[in-house]
Amino acid sequence: MIIREPQIEGHSLILPKRHVEEIVELTPKEIKSLQNLAEMAVKLIDEKLSKATLIVMNSPRQRSQKHIHYQLLPLDRKYGIRDLIGKMYGVPLYTSKTEEELEKMTNCLK
After folding, report:
1. Is residue 33 part of a domain?
2. Which of 38, 53, 70, 82 is least enclosed by beta carbons within 10 angstroms?
3. Number of domains composing the chain
4. Domain containing 26 — which CATH number?
5. CB 46 within 8 A of CB 52
6. What pLDDT, on the 0 to 100 scale, is given for residue 100?
């Protein structure tokens, strides 16, 4: 699905046919279907736009629509997720965490 207000050329969405608000509501068949569509879209974007595609699924707090969808963002091949995070948060591309910091992060997510 092409977006009415794309942020960049080729910015598009992939949605399940059925209205679903949370990822846990998707059936295994729907998940596989979304994955297949994403793979086809990535190949098409690569072929037609010569771009690498970042695929993002917004969490419920970040959505402007109340349904699950994947955002496909065609990026220049020289950029990746580290570049985006670095620009957004002003952090270096690569930082090593101590074992203590990693353990704290892990425990926070349990």
Report:
1. yes
2. 82
3. 1
4. 3.30.428.10
5. yes
6. 94
